[in-house]
Amino acid sequence: MKTKTFRQQILSMTAGEIIMAMVKGLEKPQTLIDMGTYGATRVRDQKIVCYGCAATNTVCQISGVKFTPKNIDYTGDRARAIKSSYDFLTNFERAIDELRKGNIEQYNFLAIRGKFQQIHNSTNIKLPRLNDNYNRWQLNKYKQLAEIQSFPLC
Questions:
Q1: What is the rounded CA–CA span in Å between residue 136 and residue 142?
Q2: Contact predicate 48/70, CB 8 Å
Q3: Per-domain boundaries in the chain
Q4: Residue 18 in contact with residue 117, Cβ under 8 Å?
């Protein structure tokens, strides 16, 4: 059985599954959270430590790849680690970054460009901006958004 590429995985996902991958990636992050790093390494306690954002941890959640100091710092390195094109990964990471800011319109613009599922917000859920200190209440708003993706647009 042939393994799906990262792009194929994303294209086969529903909008709700993409949102939940972001939530799960933040509930159990593979990297330390720093929403400004977008995948980077830093020296902490005399060790090299991987840092990431919502996008980095979403990519880990979907791909099943845990980034290391050797493959996290640059988008090209992350793309090779998950077997994705640079352009597709860049577009997807930007889309998830817009989503964690609560900016569905910009996420959808990038989703159209990447040909993955757009998000609708038919119940007008007010999404909080997720920063480094996000909490369960904020993540629950995103879970609510994921749940309504299965309903048809009116």
A1: 10
A2: no
A3: 6-145
A4: yes
